[in-house]
Amino acid sequence: MTLHLLTLFYPPLPAGAQTTGVDFKLADKRRVAQVLDDLGIDYIEGGYPGANQTDTEFFASPPSFKTACFTAFGMTKRAGRSVENDPGFQGLLQSKSDAICLVAKSWDYHVRVALGISNEENIEGVRESITAVVASGREAMLDAEHFFDGYKANKDHALQVVQAAYDAGARWVVLCDTNGGTLPHELERIVKEALEYVPGAHLGIHTHNDTENAVSNSLVAVRAGCRQVQGTLNGLGERCGNANLTSIIPTLLLKNEYADRFETKVTPERLRTLTHASRVLDEVVNQSPYRHAPYVGESAFATKAGIHASAILKDPDTYEHISPESVGNQRRVFVSDQGGRSNIMAELDRLGIAVDKDDPRIPSMLDAVKRREAQGYSYESADASFELLARRELGQVPQYFSVDSFRVMVERRHNARGQLVTISEATVKVFINGDPAPLWSVSEGNGPVNALDSALRKDLGRYQSHIAEVELVDYKVRILTAGGGTEAVTRVLVESHDRSTGERWLTVGVSPNIIDASFEALVDSINYKLMKDGAGAASHVA
Questions:
Q1: Out of 116-130, 182-196, 420-434, 477-491, which region has the weakest mean confidence (pLDDT)?
Q2: Strand 139-145 relative to strand 401-414: parallel, antiparallel, unpaired?
Q3: pLDDT per residue as tens digits for the range 479-517
Q4: How does residue 368 score in pLDDT terms, banded at 50, 70 and 90?
Q5: What pLDDT shows up at residue 52?
Q6: Which residues touch 507 (CB under 8 Å, ≥6 apart)?
Q7: What is the pLDDT of residue 334?
Q8: Buried b (16+ CB within 10 A) or exposed e, 470-507
Q9: FRET pair for 492, CA 20 to 30 Å: which of 57, 163, 230, 340?
Q10: pTM of the predicted model, to two decimals?
Q11: What does the pLDDT read at residue 540?
């Protein structure tokens, strides 16, 4: 059976920059672009040359791709101007790009209100702009902005826009659900009618996630006949985001309805880099990975219940719809008060801790987990704390240091300028294992937890080099009720990051006192880092 080729188009470098709180620097663009090329994306849109300094610099020295076609993004020519007399359009033609993707209005409401021109002038502008791109020797594409809203308002004009682009020589005409309000059954019907004007081999789909249907709409469009899919990693994009290629790509490659009919340049080998690509983007935009993301999330192949864990260890197909390794992810069997020996063994295996299933220490380890979770601890996310617990039960964790005492002072006062300020100061007294004299550290911070963190990491004697690049990056607090009573118990989850390696880990602390719970999690974080580095100590905890 002949497979139909699907083309993947990535518009993040403008779309990602439209995401609230996201600002791509030049180095960021280059890094993301390289990851996308390695993944097998066909078109990578670099931005709008001339629109800002970053995009201009990016196109002045474009990346060298193995797979992707480097694409410039911009508007069709302005109304009332020729293509030769439009500086913005000429900037596109002069850019160092392999293809040019133009955006045009296909909703007559926008033509009238935003552009202030007639429908006929709009169509002529599309025709002249595409013709000019083709004449420049570049591959021409058109994003039909607000196509589906335009179709519902005036389908004749919307269809005339896409037909004009195709007749003028556009390689791809892309139907855009710009507002993200179109539902799958509507989209499928409209795409099928658009196919009467533009062949499927030249028709693309661009969806937004404002109704949580961007992925579904993209897949429906492919089934209806579109052969180009636009989207972003992790669904990054304006408002609620773009179609999530991190979900679309593995669905196309691993689900029979699509895998038996279509192919992409994303090979099985490249697909195994998908989780890595997702993590790189998260790192670039400085956000924590979404743990419950399909395919690539940390919890995408996680189980907690003991009976599920037992079945998975016998045959993963019992509770997994695909192999996690196929997308570069891994199976997680969480330890909890709902789990059993199977959960413990699976987690130890994941961590690379070799223990016989009949080891008498396993029941005590399980009992310790259940006892501590009854107190409020949770190891579903805090896998670093679990590894410390497990290795301590097995006698594998050295006693690096002990905290004799700590103190935190919070002072609220007016400074010399008369401004009301709050100052936190922490003092920590630590004994390094094997040293008779204590180490005292004092530090100020932005709040008591930050002050404690700074003080604890300020001086750990011979271990200081191991933690020099460790930083606290996230801090979560949850108030619990212990034993069904009225006593408030606080659970604190701390995420730490090693700037030198990029590794992140989570630790947990529990106490009726929020500062004490925070400090416990911080101590676990440092112990975990020392353990991972193989730092030496004079004695071990049995």
A1: 477-491
A2: unpaired
A3: 876 444 445 788 898 999 999 998 999 999 999 999 999
A4: confident
A5: 80
A6: 382, 384, 385, 388, 493, 494, 496, 521, 522, 524, 525, 528
A7: 57
A8: bebeebeeeebeeeeeeeebbbbbbbbbbeeeeebbbb
A9: 340
A10: 0.69
A11: 39
Q: How far is Cα 143 from Cα 105, in angstroms, rounded to an integer?
A: 9
- How much is the pLDDT for 384? 92
- Residues 356-366 have pLDDT tens digits of 888 888 888 88
Phi, psi of 422 (to 5 degrees): -120, 125
DSSP symbol at 463: G
**Nearest CA among 3, 11, 72, 10 for reference residue 41:** 10
Give the residue, 184 or 320, on which the prediction is more confident. Answer: 184
Which CATH superfamily hosts domain 401-533?
Answer: Alpha-isopropylmalate synthase LeuA, regulatory domain (3.30.160.270)
The one-letter amino acid code at 481 reads T
Domain extent listing, the chain: 4-284, 302-374, 401-533
Under CATH, which number does the domain 4-284 receive?
A: 3.20.20.70
- Bridge partner list, 423: 411
CA–CA gap between residue 499 and residue 270 (Å, rounded): 27
Cα angle: 449, vertex 286, 492; to 5 degrees: 30
Report yes or no: 41 and 70 within 8 Å, Cβ to Cβ. no
Kindly list the distances between the CA atom of residue 284 and the CA atoms of 31, 288, 298, 494, 502, in Å, as whole numbers in the listed order: 8, 10, 18, 21, 12
In this structure, the dihedral spanned by the alpha carbons of residues 257, 263, 264 and 268, taken in order and rounded to 10 degrees, is 80
Contact at 8 Å (CB) between 532 and 500?
no
